[in-house]
Amino acid sequence: MAIERSEEKVIVSGTANLARIPSDFATSFHPILEALEEQVVLLHLLGETADGTQVKIGHEQDNTNLQSTSIVTSGYGPEGERVANLGIIGPTRMDYSGSMSAVSAVARYVSRFLEEGF
Questions:
Q1: Which residues span the domain enclosing 72?
Q2: What CATH number did the domain enclosing 94 receive?
Q3: Where is the secretion signal located (predicted)?
Q4: Can you give the pTM of this predicted structure?
Q5: Total number of domains in the chain
Q6: Which of 78, 84, 82 is nearest to 43 (CA)?
Q7: pLDDT tens, 20-52?
């Protein structure tokens, strides 16, 4: 019997970009910082990712504290096997086209990187 261990870990980057958000989004700033600090929330958000790129806008999210935000996520892994997820969290007025393109491109790049064996 083989036991496979799964390590759940969140790596956060670009947090300083939150300082560039419009002032009317400032009321939503605190819940986002809490979510970044409490990695369980992010693990839950990323864990809900279905195949392909997924977008959840405002009230489509289960977490009531983050309903003034949107999240764009995608899974990645070698040869179509999803081993992890990545995403962008931001205001509901984010650039969805650009965010979806960026998340999809990074997921494809990392998947290829994993397929080629580093």
A1: 23-115
A2: 3.30.450.40
A3: none
A4: 0.79
A5: 1
A6: 84
A7: 766 666 666 777 777 778 788 888 888 777 778
